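Project channel, design review

CF: Before we commit to the Symbiodinium pilosum constructs, I'd like one complete example in the thread so the newer folks can see what an input/output pair looks like. Taking UBA domain-containing protein.
RD: sounds good, go ahead.
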Amino acid sequence: MRSRQPRFCDVTYLRGYARQQGLYEEIVATVDWEQDKVWRVRKQEGQDNWHLRTVKECPGMGRGFCGRSLQKVPDDTHQIGPRDAHQAAKTRPHGNWQCSMAQDGCQKRQRDSALQEPYWWCSKCSWYCCDSCVKRMPDKATSKQVAHWRPGASPKLDALVADVVRDFNLPNPFQAGYTIKMNWYPDALSRVSPHRHDNWTLLVSLGAPRVLSVDRAQVLMEDGDLILFGTQSHGVPEMPSAAGGRMSLVFMFSPDDAVGAAAEARAAAGGTAARRAGEVPPGLPLPRCTLRPEELQLAALSMQASEWESGYEDSDWWAEPAAEGEAEAKNEVDTAALDAICAMGFSREHARAALRATDGDADQAVSLILSGA
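CF: and here is what came back for UBA domain-containing protein:
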């Protein structure tokens, strides 16, 4: 995998950019949300084989919920992350246990039953589960809901996306293929741990005020506030005093000086220039993209047709065909990298968009898909 050095991005903050009565409530009500799961990227030791794994939590040994992640035995993979060991665990398999779940099809109901590998255990509780029963356990969920922008699902969301693209000189999302997604924090205890990725992020916060951590700074994001940042660590901590839910509309894209210049110009000008669809500050170039209503409608119809023919998860409605049969270089992605990410369980649409946003870096593309704020 090739590495790249993303350009630095100053944090730019616009207060009240998209504040509008009832906007949060309408978008939340019209979007088809999904429960976010805890995913881990695993790599086979000494090889380039990757896969995704959800997390199963130890329920405890009758003394209350434990919650620690179950470990697979044997396991020739290691977890990918900045603080993770780059070698597989060396836990030796043994048969001196019985499955604590013991459901239909259990592989080890009794301690003297033959050992079946792999199995799962909690090192603190000495809680064991066979591979058959562990598949019936629920995946560990995060405390937030997620959704990707789907044109046509919410007209007010479509209008907000179009205004952000125009106001901050973003490229056409249907051609550039960067990520536009949403995270919904339904209550004050919903959170996401600090993380970072090698792309820039433009984020609009809607709903109840919540703190967004950006490196060591704690930024109070109120309804309609907008922030631009780069590779800084960021997260959303719990905020017990918050009243109500909050969602973030997130644009993730390759470092782009034109976007940074537009954000800085609007923040410096203030007034209506710092408001949604406001006046254009002096010296700011014409926007690269103005999403027209008919273009959004066409995208919605194309997506519906793709869903009808092959299912949304495998549809390629996001990408436009190259003009005159000539492929646009920026829309090209490495087929091997695309297939490798899809083999982890991601859709081709999300994998292709992430690869474009990270200039083909598969490691960063996986991180981008899994990350959010």
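RD: helpful, thanks. The CA atoms of residues 42 and 366 lie 11 Å apart.
CF: The radius of gyration is 23 Å.
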